[in-house]
Design brief:
Layout: E1 9-19, E2 24-35, E3 40-44, H1 51-58, E4 66-75, E5 78-79, H2 85-91, E6 96-99, H3 103-106, H4 113-125, H5 129-142, H6 148-151, H7 161-173, E7 179-183, H8 191-208, E8 211-216, H9 219-225, E9 228-233, E10 236-242, H10 243-248, H11 253-260, H12 300-304, E11 309-313, E12 316-319
Parallel strand pairs: 3-8, 3-9, 6-7, 7-8
Antiparallel strand pairs: 1-2, 1-4, 4-5, 9-10, 10-12, 11-12
Length: 331
Amino acid sequence: MPIESKDLLNVSNLTTRFYTYEGIVNAVEGVNLQMSSGEVLGLLGETGCGKSVTAFSIMRLINPPGKITEGRILFMNEDLVRKTETEMQDIRGAKISMIFQEPMSSLNPLYKVGEQITDVIKRHQKIVGKDALEKTSEVLTMVRLTDPERVLNQYPFELSGGMQQRVMIAAAISCNARLLIADEPTTMLDVSIQAEIIELLARIVRERNTGLLLITHDLGVVAQLCQKVAVMYLGNIVEYSGVRELFKNPAHPYTIGLLNSIPSTEGEIKRLNAIEGDVPDSIHPPTGCRFHPRCKLAREICRMQRPVPIEIGQGHIVYCFEYGETSQTKS
């Protein structure tokens, strides 16, 4: 069915905190994201920057001591933040599905693959018995698992890592979800299997017009699969751009640092340019721009004020005082 609004997903000023005995962890602060159907948006950043917390916030899977404290998550014109848990249970798996990083930790080792996928189908599509099994076999075929009848009668531990990940993807698409969230879907796989999973996700997006939010720290995966990319640092979006523009003209010092850390495959071997310093404590984050303690361009204003989004090109937004305080976009 067609989406009424232009954006399939519109995240506005999302803030998620964890209230621990040591203090308040500022996991996600004021995050803004927009996605349309058939689009792949990469959420890029190093480990611990808030990518997965953003994804779990969108899915409304933040449990105490965590809490979404501010913002809206508009999905198909409905604010998920205002939904009850019962309403979210109807949405998860049916309209929004998540592909987790470690399938062996997400698939139940006590149940056969077929049982786990048919449970999702029965819950959301009201299909039972033989029809549910046929639907399960159909989605296993879609993800190009050979001999699906055999696979659905196997336990997860009997499958390879690549096959387990395909099973996870099959479960995610079994109810025709409009939005897929993939959390580091290729991290645990070898290079050849990674390429197959990337191709599979690209085909699903293309053929089903599904939106895909891809969480990764792998710049290569972003370059292959994404149309747009949002770069995160310490719970904040620091740059948002089309993927080609980002690789060609990175603007934020952190993004530039990430790209400069990629080893070259051409010419002579050169020393990698690491980003100096350590990631600050998210319980006691720096004032002003969160990146300023590690930034060579930092000025006094960077230490005192939070940067606002500046549009420096068509759809290219950067949160950095180096680009002035004019042409401000709406946050």
